[in-house]
Amino acid sequence: MGLMKRLLLAPLLLGLITPANAVETCNFVSEYYPDVTIEIDNDKRKFGGFGVIKHKDKPMLDFATGLSNGYGGQYYVIRKLAKDIAYEDDKKSVASGKVVGMIGTQTRTTPKDKRKSGVKRIMFPNFGTGYYYSLSNYFEPEKDGRFAGRTKAMSAILGASEGFFIPDKICERFIFYGWD
After folding, report:
1. Under a CB-based contact definition with an 8 Å cutoff, are residues 66 and 49 in contact?
2. Which end of the chain has a smaller Cβ tally under 10 Å, C or N?
3. How many CB atoms lie within 10 A of CB 6?
4. Over the range 55-74, which residues count as b (16 or more CB within 10 Å of their CB) and which as e?
5. CA distances from 118 to 90, 104, 153 (A)
6. Would you tell me the crossing angle of helices 152-161 and 127-134 to the nearest 10 degrees?
7. How far is it, in rounded angstroms, from Cα 6 to Cα 73?
């Protein structure tokens, strides 16, 4: 094949190569423990949010949120990272339940005529309790994260688990009930 034909075909062939699908992420940052974040894949083809809870950019737990069918509302599920699952019981969720989304100090039940603008925040009831009990290690007591084996990362996540997380602008789409 001549040089001219190769040069003419090169742009066509290069156009067929698709770039890697880099998924954009967004973040929720703990209100009082900013080293604890929830990074969510912002895949607009998916309705729910899937990602990881991090401490200082190190993945610590898997995270998911979405909407239940019907009147169920928004939910969350937190699990151990897949690489950390050692026993069958580890496949169970660390914590799960309803999400409390707020605009300022108001919830989704605020009547329309009383709604005010404010900072969007999200909270995960039962996250702290579930995470605390997931740290137990009966097989190696010196590594029991509730007591002697607790790390700074574990303590930070425990502190953050009882409070609010603030979304960046992109992650606001995962606060399903809001008005601003």
Report:
1. yes
2. N
3. 10
4. beeeebbbbbbbeeeeeeeb
5. 39, 4, 30
6. 150
7. 58
Handedness of CA 111, 171, 37, 147 (dihedral sign): positive
Those residues with Cβ within 8 angstroms of residue 29's Cβ, 6 or more apart along the chain or in another chain: 36, 37, 165, 166, 168
Per-residue tokens: 108: 């989704």
Beta bridge partners of 28: 38, 167
In DSSP terms, which residues pair with 38 in a beta bridge? Answer: 28, 53
Mention every residue, 6+ apart, whose C-beta is less than 8 A from residue 10: none
Residue type, 97: G
Whole-angstrom Cα distance, residue 80 to residue 58?
13
pLDDT tens-digit map of 72-114: 688 999 998 877 766 666 667 899 999 998 998 888 888 889 9
Give pTM, 2 decimals.
0.79
Q: What does the block give as tokens for 32?
A: 């009082």
pLDDT in tens, the chain (180 residues): 554 444 444 444 444 444 444 568 999 999 999 999 999 998 777 778 899 999 999 999 999 998 888 776 889 999 988 777 666 666 678 999 999 989 988 888 888 899 898 899 999 999 999 999 888 877 777 777 787 788 899 999 999 999 999 999 988 888 877 666
